[in-house]
Amino acid sequence: MDKHDYDVIIVGAGPVGGRAATLLAEEGLRVLMLEEHKEIGRPFQCAGLVTPSAMDAVGAHQTVLQEVDGALIHGPSGTLVPVGTDGKLRTYVVCRKRFDQFVVQQGMEAGASLWLDSAPLSATTDETGVQLLVRKEGEERSLRCKLLIGADGAHSWTRRMFKMGRPKELMIGFQTEVVGYEGRERWLEMYSGSSIAPGFFAWVIPSGFGTHRIGLWSTADRLNGRSIESCYQDLMDHPLWKERFENTSEIARYCGPVPSGMVKKPVRDRVMLLGDAAGMAKPTTGGGLGPGFHQIQCILAPLVNAIDENLLDEARLKAITKQPWNAMKKEQDRARTLRNLLVSDCTDEVLDKHFINFAHPDTLSLINAIGDIEKPVPLGMALLKQVPAFRPLALKAGVRLLLS
Ligand SMILES: Cc1cc2nc3c(=O)[nH]c(=O)nc-3n(C[C@H](O)[C@H](O)[C@H](O)COP(=O)(O)OP(=O)(O)OC[C@H]3O[C@@H](n4cnc5c(N)ncnc54)[C@H](O)[C@@H]3O)c2cc1C
């Protein structure tokens, strides 16, 4: 009989690797997580927003720093669109270090093993398993498993090793943590405009204990040679907003990638990508935790059967993932198309006009009734269909959605 040290080896003990380890170990599988760092949850590159459904999946409520009821969204010339209702929770802000540790610990409590300071050096697949050479605390170890999962983030080693393609978009995020910002309690803020976040938006998020996270994101082509830090400085110096930032003092800063757009080949023979490695972050918000959790949850039962039977060739993995992952990819593509049409591909002048329409009381009621960070497509479609000012865009949207 072929001897496997583990049923599944997961490269990367981030939140998605930890979640996958939990779900697979709970099914009685022997799971090992490899984490290249010496501790979980560092370095952290995240605004820490966790949607209620992602939070419910893991129950990490003790890692919450702040609850948020809504967003105060500002157009390039200052038009304010408030989305949300006081007292109605929209999202959580967590301490990412504690959140990641909590999720990985769940995996270990379910029976998974964790090797810190460990990373794969090489991997080859054959008819019955995956042969891995791993560096563990400076020493080389040979391991064999049935399935290799790459949950190793935006620059995934697994993805490169098995030539699985690239995420469609790679956004660059930059963020500081500050004290001294006076915001509205339980509300986050968003700012738009080509000087501060070309095609995307900047954010100010309350993160508990008097601190705020101030950040922004964009893509390299939209930055067109500018550094993301210079955009941040433009936000700090913006004539409309600078007074808000005057008394802030920075206590940390980070920069990181946000991969969005599922890679072409998320599965190969005995290999699968999850989370940022697969390009799962949302094109509208950059949120990657919810989609990463859903990606493993929605294929769990057939995947566990296939691991039990050790039938894990590419055709079988494709059959397991095809329907649920294609649905996720389609939703991502549609959300990106609508985002580009309504926000990212607009000049500041056009975006200002859109904001005036967003701020109309009827449109605001529609946004508050249908708006859902997790499912932006229905809102985008409703705006195009029901708001007279957006109707001219509907035909364009239809064509682009057909082509997306
Ligand atoms: C500025 C910014 C703000 C963001 N804000 C939010 C937000 O508010 N909400 C949200 O949901 N998402 C947000 N995201 C995205 C979110 O951080 C990611 O989608 C999420 O962390 C993906 O989880 P993951 O487990 O797939 O990957 P990661 O969190 O990147 O974890 C990958 C793990 O694999 C390890 N690893 C990598 N390579 C190897 C290797 N070769 N061997 C062993 N281990 C390896 C890493 O050390 C890491 O621990 C933000 C991203 C950025 C950059």
Describe the structure.
The chain has 404 residues and is of the alpha/beta class. The protein folds into three domains: 6-46 and 96-167 and 263-312, FAD/NAD(P)-binding domain (3-Layer(bba) Sandwich), CATH 3.50.50; 64-94 and 169-259, D-Amino Acid Oxidase, Chain A, domain 2, CATH 3.30.9; 334-403, no CATH class. Helices cover 37% and strands 27% of the residues. The protein has helices spanning 15-26, 52-58, 96-109, 157-161, 220-223, 228-237, 242-245, 289-297, 300-309, 314-344, 348-358, 361-370, 376-386, 391-403, and strands at residues 6-11, 31-34, 49-50, 64-68, 70-74, 80-84, 91-94, 113-115, 118-125, 130-136, 139-150, 169-179, 187-191, 202-206, 211-219, 249-260, 267-268, 271-273. The strands form three sheets. Strands 1, 2, 8, 9, 10, 11, 17 and 18 form an eight-stranded mixed beta sheet that branches. The chain has a seven-stranded mixed beta sheet with strand order 6-5-13-14-15-12-16. The structure holds flavin-adenine dinucleotide. Residues 11-17, 34-37, 45-49, 119, 151-153, 157, 173, 175, 215, 256, 258, 275-276, 281, 286-289, 292 line the site of flavin-adenine dinucleotide (FAD). Flavin-adenine dinucleotide is lined by residues 11-17, 34-37, 45-49, 119, 151-153, 157, 173, 175, 215, 256, 258, 275-276, 281, 286-289, 292.
